[in-house]
Amino acid sequence: MMASANTLCARIDAVRATIDRAAKQYGRRSEDVTLLAVSKTRTADEIRQAVACGQRAFGENYASELQEKSAVLADKALSWHFIGPVQSNKTRLIAERADWLHSLDRERIARRLNDQRPEQRPALNVCIQVNISDEPSKSGVAPEEILGLAEQIRALPRLRLRGLMAIPAPTDDPAQQRQAFAQLRACLEDLQTRGYELDTLSMGMSDDLEAAIAEGATIVRVGTAIFGSRSG
């Protein structure tokens, strides 16, 4: 069920308040943390409501939804982020429609995106997805594979490597949450010491965004806490 406009705005305000509180607690500036509203399976009308509440960045998991919603909402100045697994037969849609890709984990996909990125658009901002918890079911490269993929991406002119993304194994333990996010931060810092100019840690969702902010998240991906639970 679609939330009322007032409910949606209240939820967005509550998430932003959590971000502000966590940023202050850990000595960070809240403006350095971008709230990415995960809008997969949500309608264009729901996104339009969120836009009316001041939200501008939206994350999609399916290329077809990204294509449809970005076209319907082309009258709005929005930032579209693709955050799901990338299928090779969907790279053109992502290259044409997305401003960001958070889930890059293969050179072959990187080359397709580079070749298919329209010349009139800026380079596609990308993050390497890291399987930080070594889960067989999760996409992403192992930490020791990050540098090799980063070197390959750096050679592609239509892509701009911005940082790293991870979805750690779920846990309710804040200490374990922070440990996983700290690992990703250490991976980013290693790349920075090697001369990569990176500024993005895409980590943290509705249930662990405070731990992510504590460890340096610059983009938090929040769906349920904004739009509510999905039906079906």
UniProtKB/TrEMBL annotation:
It comes from the Bacteria. CDD domains: PLPDE_III_Yggs_like. Signal peptide: none annotated. It holds the Pfam family Ala_racemase_N. GO terms for molecular function: pyridoxal phosphate binding. PROSITE patterns: UPF0001. Residues 13-230 form the Alanine racemase N-terminal domain. Keywords: Pyridoxal phosphate. The modification N6-(pyridoxal phosphate)lysine is found at residue 40. Its cofactor is pyridoxal 5'-phosphate. HAMAP family: PLP_homeostasis. Pyridoxal 5'-phosphate (PLP)-binding protein, which is involved in PLP homeostasis. Belongs to the pyridoxal phosphate-binding protein YggS/PROSC family. PANTHER family: PROLINE SYNTHETASE CO-TRANSCRIBED BACTERIAL HOMOLOG PROTEIN (PTHR10146), PYRIDOXAL PHOSPHATE HOMEOSTASIS PROTEIN (PTHR10146:SF14). This is Pyridoxal phosphate homeostasis protein. The lineage of its organism: Bacteria, Pseudomonadati, Pseudomonadota, Gammaproteobacteria, Chromatiales.
